[in-house]
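Subject line: Sequence and fold of a protein, written as structure tokens
Body of memo: The sequence and its backbone structure tokens, given next.
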Amino acid sequence: MVSNEQRRRQLAREKYERQQQRREAARRKARRRNAAIAAGLAVVIAAGATAYASGALGGGDDGGRTSADAAPSGLPTPTKGPDPCAKPAPGSPTTKQWKSEPEMTVDKSATYAMNLKTTCGTIDITMDAAKAPHTVNSFNFLAAQGYFDHTRCHRLTGEGSGIYVLQCGDPQGNGQGGPGYTLAEENLKDPVLKEPSDPELKKAGMKIYPAGTVAMAKTAAPHSTGSQFFLVYKDSPLKPDYTPLGTIGAEGRKTLKKIADAGAQGGGADGTPNATAVIDKATVSKS
């Protein structure tokens, strides 16, 4: 004879399994959707502009449990994972804004090294000014102004979203910040962007942003690149609309993996990283 408690647990487990099946179906739907629309990596284009462009990275199909979608009694619920990073250095993000793009000062024939000293380790980046002169010039200017110092990498996407990136560069820490000016997108035909093997992705005009790529976030509108950028930790299909800025070095990839492995808060496919990934200091120098 099955007791009431055993029956209750059986029903709870069956409900949980149905929820898991629905989530998996939603993940498959999200991956198909990624092949049909441009993923909306968010950036604010100017002071007072709108928040995230949701696109394929919105909080819809599989962006984490709600209170109504929690695991039933007797089964584990997701919790905030461990933080593998150190405490941030003392200081606060800047509130500086500029009305226009800075004057061109970089050597357009040179490469530049960007060094992000983060609470999780160093992220070393090589930038090619010949391919993206305005973007590299902007980073050189903003880093010299301390714009990136004490800013948190606010967004991590992963399994279930279809893309694998860490997004940084917003002093507000919520995806709405920018320097007050915008840039035109550059270097969109860089051979670093590969053709996908999936015919649906090809048909949708996607390219593969390979692991180790640094690119600029933007809204769906042209000429909307600001200060936010994303670090790709696993090959990711995206519309070739996001300026490829540079490549991450070996040390930086280890740091990025540490952050990605810690996952997003709540166990979702898109959200705030569990890791306290704060840029204590950003510097740019000519290589």
Notes: The first strand starts at residue 111 and ends at 118. DSSP finds four helices and twelve strands in the chain. The CA atoms of residues 45 and 224 lie 5 Å apart.
